[in-house]
Amino acid sequence: MIELDLSDEAVARAVHRIGLRSYAVEARLIGSTAIPALHETVAELRARPLRWLGAHVDGTPAGFVAWARVDGVLDIDRLCVDPDFFRRGLARRLVRAVLAEGGPAVVATGADNGPAIALYEGLGFRRTGTSEPVPGLRIAEFSRPGTP
Fold first, then answer.
1. Phi/psi of residue 59, nearest 5 degrees
2. 79 Cβ contact list (under 8 Å, min separation 6)
């Protein structure tokens, strides 16, 4: 795992590409292309006030997690793994790295995104609700109690 600096153009473009590929898979799983990050530009991505951590496989950017601490809570804004690197434990390692900062955490994913839901539940998150921010986009919300 490595901290990512999105002020570096090549890093920002790699993160954007991974995000688009990953969210395209989620869109198919949940039956909606209304995922905001699918329509985000590199400039919009870079402007987000988040911390970024990346995973590489043999020197190739393979995934990332982005989060912020808001009122003492780790708010995981996005977790993406390039589909070429699915099923290698990268997402689990990325989330664990964020959780190692300690404190309660929240995350959300498509309500029909079974792989992501299984991941979060396996890491101790519990579903707290479901919302529909735009018609047809159902979001499952999760929280996890703090850790020492």
1. 80, -5
2. 63, 64, 65, 66, 91, 94, 95, 107, 116
Q: Extract the tokens encoding 99.
A: 């959780």
Instruction: Give the model confidence (pLDDT) of 27-83 as tens digits.
Output: 999 988 889 899 999 999 999 999 999 999 999 999 999 999 999 999 999 999 999
* pTM exceeding the 0.70 threshold for the entire prediction: yes
Distance CA 96, CA 83 (A): 20
Tokens of 56: 């590489």
Distance CA 7, CA 55 (A): 18
b/e for 82-121, b at 16 or more Cβ within 10 A? beebeeeebbeebbeebbeeeeebbbbbbbebeebbebbe
What the block records as the tokens of 128 is 């707290």
Q: For residues 11 and 17, what is the distance between their CA atoms, to the nearest angstrom?
A: 10
Element (H, E) at 61: strand 60-70
